[in-house]
Amino acid sequence: MKDAFGIPQSLLVLGGTSEIALATARRLIARRTRTVWLAGRPSPALEQSAAELRDLGADVHTVAFDALDPESHETVLGKVFAEGDVDMVLLAFGILGDQARDEREPLNAVRVAQTNYTGAVSASLVSARALQTQGHGSLVVLSSVAGERARRANFIYGSSKAGLDAFTQGLGDAMHGTGVHVMVVRPGFVRSKMTADLAEAPLATTPEAVATAIELGLRRRSETVWVPGTLRVVMSALRHVPRGLFRRLPL
Fold first, then answer.
1. What domains sit in the chain, N to C, each tagged with a CATH number?
2. For residue 152, which phi and psi values (nearest 5 degrees)?
3. Of residues 158, 141, 156, the one with CA closest to residue 238
4. pLDDT at 244
5. In Å, how far are 6, 73, 97, 118, 172 from 68, measured between CA atoms?
6. Is 157 annotated as catalytic?
7. Which residue of 9, 23, 92, 93 could cross-link 211, Cys pair, CB 3.0 to 4.6 Å?
8. Which stretches of the chain are DSSP H helices?
9. List 65, 93, 157, 189, catalytic entry
10. pLDDT category, 240, cuts 50, 70, 90?
């Protein structure tokens, strides 16, 4: 069970090699978390991530999970929940894609959408129902400020995150009053391996900063978390910029 400050004792990470997820797991282990499941495609990187968290004192298990195989989600995640209560599920998988290539090759664009949206919808619904059945827990979903308004530079990725963000807000409303806390996290540009080849955007952040914001959001039982917080004001303004002008902004 979570303590009075919302810190989970057990954590299930969907996207077990995500740098943000691992930074969050490290932070939570330092506070209270003792059992961690890292779910992802079997790989040396997944095993290495598990080993690093074990060195911090947690009991860590790896779970074979594929976002692109939603038919398996209920069985795979059901086995985790069958082992005992899960206090927090962190949905952290996703792919950035390559905008120029994906425009030329629509099947690649579909893969971005299926991973970031369809796979996330399936995993979120399965997780939320399991949390509801046990009567408590948090579902934390990594969205992105890219979903706030489609930009020419990454509208395929941005549209997938926009769909996920809207879905998660609705799911949070559906879970209200059930004991399940749903939180959307909207980071800006995060310095990570996934963005290493991209020009850094203003207000860039780090996996560790996102992890800190997630912990604070859990303590406050927030429904939406912006990282950094300044982005809330920035995106509120950008949402209202006329389309013709927005199209010409260097974004």
1. 10-247 (3.40.50.720)
2. -55, -35
3. 158
4. 80
5. 31, 10, 15, 8, 23
6. yes
7. 23
8. 19-31, 44-54, 73-82, 99-104, 106-113, 119-134, 155-175, 207-220, 231-238, 243-248
9. 157
10. confident
d(CA 40, CA 130): 19
pLDDT in tens, 151-209: 888 999 999 999 999 999 999 999 999 999 999 999 977 766 766 666 666 667 899 99
N- to C-terminal Cα distance for the chain?
43
Distance CA 152, CA 158 (A): 10
Q: Cα dihedral angle (227, 200, 167, 37), rounded to 10 degrees?
A: -70
Residue type, 32: R
β-sheet with 224-227: strand ranges across: 59-64, 35-40, 10-14, 88-91, 137-142, 180-187, 224-227
Return the pLDDT at 251. 66
Helix, strand, or coil here: 117?
A: helix
Beta pairing partners, 64: 40
